[in-house]
Amino acid sequence: MPRSRPIPTLSPKQSLILELLIDHKEMYGLELVAASRRRLKRGTVYVTLGRMEEKGLVTSRLESTADAGGLPRRIYQATPRGRALLAAWRQLTKHLIAEFAR
Amino acid sequence: MMPGHRLREWARRVCSEETMIRLIDPLIADLQYEATETSRDPRRRRRLWILAAGYFAFWKVVALHLPWAALRRFWNSATAGEGVARALTYAALAFTVLTLLLTAPPLPHLHGRNNAEQAWLFVLLLPQAVALSMPVALFVGVVCALRRRAVTTLARRTISVLAVAASLAMFFIINGLVPASGEAFRETLAARAALEGRQYVLERGPMELSLLEVRRQALALKRESRPRQAGWLLLTFHQRVSLAAAPLALTLLAFGLSRARVRMAATIAGTACTVFVAWMFAASNMDRAMLSHEWVAIALAWFPPVLLIATGMALLTVRLKPRATGSG
What we know:
A: 4 helices, 13% strand, B: mainly alpha, 78% helix
């Protein structure tokens, strides 16, 4: 029997990041933390973003100019796969909530 | 120098390239960006607060994520995982066999009143057996698993960390569990003898005393000008500390032995054995009063682990000749 592919899932933090990235087009990690109203922490946001990048849900690039000789910051963007997964995930949760509300 | 520069240099030594790109560099970049942004802010406290928040985020990632990342890297690395798993399997086997061999012989002579008491007496014998079998099992495990095999640095580091953990456990066993279980063993036997109408006065020997009690008694005897007894207790004190280093010292020796050629290993191990026998001879013929000098007791107690470590280091640092390939 062929092995079935695992169904992709989204944690609350991951869906929040995708929502923010879709709304703002592209954002820095610190901007995500600020826009999340304390739901994302700066100590863990890059761990989540790293995992999402591994799964192909977000993509990142380095900013072109770094201020005063500091390291260039990383800018994140949602991928089409991330957008599709968020849309599917929203539909699924909506459906599940409706089912359980009955 | 921008803040976070040294942290980044340090992180580069311990983190993989992927972790640097995905985690550490963005964190340091944020820290530096914020430091630049707030550098003109007249509120000093705010500047410091923002900088502290950046450093806190960095250390939070280091503490929470890096151990997992290292563990994941370790399990994904088949060679390292195999090496450590093999060493642990051999060590577990050796540990079981040795512990049973050490506890089984006195078992028929325990004569518990019932099965429960017999089992309890057996349990009380275990810490002493474990204190011996654990370092030896680790040594056997490492030699058997790594002998004549290529060992990755990651596997060697992981085994070293395990050896340090074993040494810490050994310290706790020798200085906590062994005295407590020895005392409980004697009390159980004395209680049974009392039931049979025989009375024993239980005086605690050095093995039933805690580490601090041994030291206190030794110093008290020294003050009473009884150097022979004081020396003996001082040696016991330092031996109980130095014995805890046995797993680490034996693991280092095992690394050396597993890497060396048979002839070279035999030569170095033979020399070490000769030195050890000479030490035993000197120690047994030494005037016990000499041991009341702290440095003599320390030197005598720490000689075996130091010798093991030196032998291991010698085996590890000796340059190996390239193995001849092809038989023509």
